[in-house]
Amino acid sequence: MHEMALCEGIVEIVEEEARRRSFSRVKTVCLEIGALSHVAPEAMRFCFAAVAARTIADGAVIEVVELPGVAWCFACSRSVEIAHRDEPCPCCGSYQLQATGGEEMRVKELEVD
Amino acid sequence: MDCGADPAGLKIVGMSSERTIRIERDILGKNNRIAANNRARFLTDDLLVFNLVSSPGAGKTALLVRTVSELKDSRPVGVIEGDQQTSNDADRIRATGVPAIQINTGKGCHLDAAMVGEAYRRLPPLKGGILFIENVGNLVCPAAFDLGEACKIVVFSTADGEDKPLKYPDMFAASSLMLINKIDLVPVIDFDLAKTIEYARRVNPNIEVLTVSARTGEGFAALYAWIRKQAGNQRRPVGDALR
After folding, report:
1. Cα atoms in the Cβ-side hemisphere of radius 13 Å centred on A17
2. For the domain that residue B227 is a member of, what is the CATH number?
3. A91 CB near a chain B CB, below 8 Å?
4. pLDDT computed for residue B196 by the predictor
5. Cβ neighbours of residue B121 under 8 Å, at least 6 residues apart?
6. So where does Zn(2+) get bound (chain A) (predicted)?
7. Residue B39: inside a domain, yes or no?
8. Alpha helix (H) residue ranges in chain B
């Protein structure tokens, strides 16, 4: 349940931004979550509601932009898309892959009032 | 257009206080900043730090008890133990004469960088030595949290099942070394070492592999050689590394 800790991190970010940019309500929290990151978007939505209760982000909707997993294939020397870490290169079948994108877990933007 | 009402109840027709702000901030940013501070402190103290991760029962503590007992006479060694409850693991380490700090995470499923920074402050000076962090037994959550370690070591037991690296790929992808423990059980269980390594390298082509038995001591000479190599890498000046 590291999603709870991650959601606490989101609420902290929102609270800091609220102090800095003076807003009092958050309607939407837009996240960027990579396919190779450590969370599933559904788990974040579920946990966020619980963690955000009675904070400035109470009731805010989580929107998730899912980013694809990208890896460098050492066998065919090119960048390829993969959905999971245990997948081979879709072009040549090699497992000699180095993830280069899709590990993101970011708060992209906030819709505030 | 919405006629926005601000918190003071002020309404301005044709104006909305609603807005979208771009912030682009890493959710783990705070942990990563603290981890960077820990890492800087460990380097200043010339300390080599390993973060041991595994499922519960893979034998991390037994492995550490043997390792710290055998290394403690040649250099300073310390241990930070993470568990939801009890100080059993720290007690086992302390019985060897090596200092250990127990972190109880309560409901938490992983150690974070702040917990480790605080625990490190409570350890005696370990300058020039080795610090082992035994994370909470869990193959999922600890993968996401940098503690400031030199690298993660995933401990895997021969009784775990060969496909653990495929089931929990994030942890094997995040680790530099897979330490296969309980290798002495191989004659009495069905365990396919080649298959395990193949699966681990599917998710992390660079992962190194060593086999050990914390019970018999088999394979530990190779583990200590690996640790010495890591110490050498960490101490090598940046100029050397680039050459």
Report:
1. 24
2. 3.40.50.300
3. no
4. 97
5. none
6. 73, 76, 89, 92
7. yes
8. 29-44, 60-71, 88-94, 113-122, 164-167, 169-174, 193-203, 220-235, 238-242
Helix (H, G, I), strand (E, B) or coil at A39: coil
Q: Residue window 44-73, chain A: list those with CB within 8 Å of chain B.
A: none
Quick one: how far is CA B239 from the chain centroid?
Answer: 28
- Report chain A residues whose CB lies below 8 A from the CB of B143: 38
Cβ contact A27–B140 (<8 Å) = no
How far is B199 from B241, CA to CA, in rounded Å? 30
Confidence check: pLDDT of B7 > 60? no
With CB atoms and an 8 Å threshold, state whether A95 touches B201: yes
pLDDT digits (tens, 9 = 90+) for B114-158: 999 999 999 999 999 999 999 999 999 999 999 999 999 999 999
Does residue B154 contact residue B173 with C-beta atoms inside 8 Å? no
Q: What percent of chain B has pLDDT over 70?
A: 90
Q: Which domains does chain A have, with CATH numbers?
A: 2-112 (3.30.2320.80)
DSSP state of A38: S
Q: Is A43 on the interface with B (CB under 8 A)?
A: no
| Structural domain that includes position B34 | 29-235
Mean pLDDT, rounded, for B206-227: 98
Closest CA to A63 of A83, A48, A82: A48
**CA–CA separation, B178 and B181 (whole Å):** 9
For chain B, how many structural domains are there in total? Answer: 1
User: Is position B19 within any domain?
Assistant: no
Cβ–Cβ of B28/A6 closer than 8 Å? yes
Interface test with A, best of B27, B170, B197 (most A CBs within 10 A): B27
